[in-house]
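Section 3.1: Structural characterization of target chains.
Under the original work plan, the team committed to producing a structural model for every single-chain target entering the pipeline before any wet-lab resources were allocated. The record below documents one such target. The sequence was received from the expression subgroup and is listed exactly as submitted; it comprises 415 residues.
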Amino acid sequence: MSSNDPAAGQAEPALEHTPRSAGAIALVLLALAMGGFAIGVTEFAAMSILPDFAAGLGVDEPTAGHAISAYAAGVVVGAPLLAVLGARLPRWLMLVGLMGLFAAANTLSALSPTFGWMLVFRFLSGLPHGAYFGVAALVAASTVPLRFRTRAVSTILMGLTVATVVGVPVINLVSHAYGWRWTFVIVGALAMLTMALVALFAPRDPAHPDASPFRELGALRNRQVWLTLGVSAIGFGGMFAVYAFLASTLREVTGVGPEVMPWVFAVFGIGMFSGNLLGAWAADRFGFPAAAGLLVWSAASLALYPLASHQLWSMLGIVLCIGAGGGLGSILQTRLMDVAGEAQTLAAALNHSAFNTANALGPLLAGAAVAAGFGWASTAWVAVGLTLGGLAIWVWAWLDARPSPEPTDISHEAC
């Protein structure tokens, strides 16, 4: 960790750094990123095909949106539950099992006979999401020297960002040509491919001999863990407050048609991809302060959103900048590795529970502002408030982590 981090005096996480060749590291990271790609496709493509499966299952679109909420609920519940239950398993085997559950649940989603079953299967699909990213982050960090670990972790999240740029548009074409059920069939196939790649290339490190569910639950006693999760749950809410209503703003304020919208969302994905790379570099260089810099960047970008929303060219630029704020994820993931002590798996998984809490909180508050009659621009002001709230929690975490000053011994001072 950077010497600029006030938590630098704390014990480093118990990650093994076995020397590996560059080629071996690349194969491990590719295998892990493929899982991130599969998860990204199902999370974002499900939103884009919502009208299709609403019609196919005989419900209206607002009701169909509950399937998105069911998936997010699965993430929030599954991340801590599966991380604790799998504490005694070797990490490579846990990843294979999580992807097996993900593959089965998405395949069942494709076979949903009714919307009620669709809700059940989407909830099951969300269960492995957070635990997979958490465990995969630990495996990625263990393959490289400590100074490069955030960049290794960002590779997994890069799979998710590539899904927003490439995977979702391709899945949309397939869905519109052959039916919405093929979306989940393809995701199931990607999950099975991830299982094979992880089994082939992930390091076969055994589970820690002292690993146990009770040891993992120890993370919940650590205030720094909760503060870091708070930065994620509140700070990320700003990005989602704007993203959830981006299509509506483009239509009602910018005045563009549906043929232009996929390009704007692709630009957002490019921003996330770029922010992920730059955020990882900054975290490896500066440590936890990189999170504060990215939150300030996000707040400034979101504040400019109402001004930029009236022209397509300015909208493309500001959406790119807002997307770059997504780089916060890999910074917070490695921060949790620093502060979680022996409860690495649970803390890493909880980051994605916090992320999906932001995914629910941001749109909820922004939607309330629009419904109250404040207009589409109000989503940005809600977003700025949430981002600054995340920054305030970061300040709290930073001050809390500073070592207490040593007491002055005056017994030997000269009179």
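Residues 14-401 form a domain with the Growth Hormone; Chain: A; fold (CATH 1.20.1250.20).
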